[in-house]
């Protein structure tokens, strides 16, 4: 499985992941809602379980993904400052380039 994190997203995620209360935990990307040929995503900080795979990214952030969920393979995490500040999780590999 693959996961990409943009430079801006990595910067913001590391600020959160480096807090003492999150020591030993990883970023989790999960599907909040799936319908038709695409899904919507959420982010959390968690520990992996037997149904997960942990993927290392080029920014040194390990990401937890549910093993058998095809919507999670190829997710991309971005952080935008405009039009409003926040994270955006998409999966271009599945044709999902943003929420509708």
From the 3D structure, determine the CATH topology. Answer: Hypothetical Protein Aq_1857, Chain: A
Just name the CATH architecture.
Sandwich
**What's the story with the biggest beta sheet?**
4 strands, mixed
Structure summary, number of beta strands: 7
Query: What is the name of the CATH superfamily?
Result: HesB-like domain
Secondary-structure element order, N to C: EHEEEEEE
> Ends: how far apart?
25 Å
- In one word, what is the shape? globular
Number of helices: 1
Spans of at least 5 consecutive residues whose pLDDT stays below 50 are none
Class computed from helices, strands and strand pairing: mainly beta
How large a portion of the residues is in β-strands, by DSSP E? 35-45%
Radius of gyration: 13 Å
The tally of structural domains comes to 1
Mean pLDDT: 92
